[in-house]
Amino acid sequence: MASKPRILAFAGSLRANSYNKRLVRLAGAAAAEAGAEVSYLDLKDFPLPVFDEDLETAGGEPANARKIKDMMLASDGFLISAPEYNSSISAALKNAIDWASRTTGNEGPLACFTGKVIGLLSASPGALGGLRGLVVVRSLFGNIHALVVPEQIAIARAHEAFQEDGTLKDAKQQAAVEKIATRVVEVAARLKA
Fold first, then answer.
1. Rounded to whole angstroms, what are the CA distances from 49 to 40, 97, 178, 183?
2. pLDDT tens digit string along 81-115?
3. Residue 170: how many CA atoms within 13 Å on its side-chain side?
4. pLDDT in tens, 6-42
5. Backbone dihedral angles phi then psi of residue 44, each to the nearest 5 degrees
6. Is the dihedral angle over the CA atoms 172, 90, 135, 102 positive or is it negative?
7. Could you tell me which of 69, 56, 53 has the C-alpha nearest to residue 101?
8. From the CB of residue 170, how many other CB atoms can be counted at a distance below 10 Å?
9. Euclidean distance between CA atoms 159 and 193, whole angstroms
């Protein structure tokens, strides 16, 4: 019997009480319910300098970049809740992707992303829920050889969307988050088999 797919869940936000961190926790719980082994990554726990090839050449890969890469390499897929910053991707998420994309040692190009299954979510106090940013994130991951599942969700008015227990007030939105997580687990399991 094949082992459980390993899913890494993280948000592209650094803020402690981020709506996107709440949302990715929901997705991670659903992935675990669907049979995955789920790990969580908080980018705030692994501060990184802005990617700079001169810095990389002079000092090598930063220790936190290596830790993030190791978590990504050990995973079969990702659940990412990506906040929208000025109609695009957050700097924290983009910077983590840039560092993880670098080839070190015997790793092949884009080893952290090639063939990884990704589910995308977003939450925002705004009316579009971060939808414009998801367009950018989807395009980016598609271009670095990841498999992004077609389902996604953008939770609008996120400051009003969550119940005290962390679930979403809207049952249809809650079900959509669970469906995304389940799809990621199913596809990752098939690829792993």
1. 21, 12, 34, 34
2. 999 999 999 999 999 999 999 998 888 889 999 99
3. 13
4. 999 999 999 999 999 999 999 999 999 999 999 999 9
5. -65, -25
6. negative
7. 69
8. 12
9. 40
What are the distances in angstroms from CA 146 to CA 143, 149, 169? 7, 10, 31
Q: How many CA atoms lie within 13 A of 68 on its CB side?
A: 27
Residue 168: what residue type?
Answer: L
Question: Cα separation of 5 and 77, whole Å?
Answer: 8
Alpha-carbon distance values, 77 to 11, 61, 187, 193 (Å): 14, 23, 9, 14
Tens-place pLDDT, residues 133-164: 999 999 999 999 999 999 999 999 999 999 99
Tell me if the pTM is above 0.90.
yes
Instruction: Give the β-pairing of 84-85 and 88-89.
Output: antiparallel
